[in-house]
Prior knowledge:
about 55% helix; 11 helices; alpha+beta; about 15% strand; two-stranded antiparallel sheet; elongated; Chitinase A, domain 3
Amino acid sequence: MTATHLSGVVPPAVIAIASNRPLLSVEETNRLLRQQGVALALAQGVVLDRVASMITMHEDEEISLMRAYLEAEGINNDEALSGWLETKGWSLDDLRYFATKAERVRRYSQDCYAKQAEIRFLERKLDLDQVTYSLLRVSDRELAEELHCQLLEEEADFPSLVAAHSKGQERATRGLIGPIALTTGHKALVERLRVSRPKQLWPPFEVAGWWLLVRLEERFPAQLDDAMRAAMVDELFQVWFKEQVSLLMAGEELMPLIAVAEPVNP
Length: 266
């Protein structure tokens, strides 16, 4: 026993960046967290670690995920695995954690927020709907009105007028924009697209010094399919996740985690 231990003085705790190689004291680590801007990443890691710990997985599920993880890393035999773990400074438990973390977080999100996915979808539907529309912009109001008349009378088509007169980036696509989220763009444009019928041409209107001609081409309403449900669940989880990280960054207590169902024996 060292003299330090005999004197009753506890040696300072140290942080190991590489496995089993102590490098920094807790005081030094806290200083680096502040000064190098990595406190946010640590806070995110703390929350994700708590979430992952809430999900229990069967051993065969863990093994399957570990194998898939190693295949993606090009590790296909025990010898390669041993050297790879040594290079990483990982134990098998570390490998298990990294290989299963994403699935644990997904399951936690699903358990907590699946029942709220439809409500989230309905709240966000206007943002999720997509449209394609034709756009032409010029700086002169009289020209815009003349081009509008030509379109109404079918004296010219939208692509040719865009090529001849439009001043914006839409020239590269002959005026066709999208598919794009319905709510993307200037408020005046969004308001018109929201109430448009397909092939409806709007009279010229001014936006930021430009006179715009807009025609809705097609509307693509968002559907609550499996992929959309998963996206809504993830959005809800991300809202909660960011709240937890903000609490940690502010030095406040984290909210209790939601209890999740235990896995059913296969």
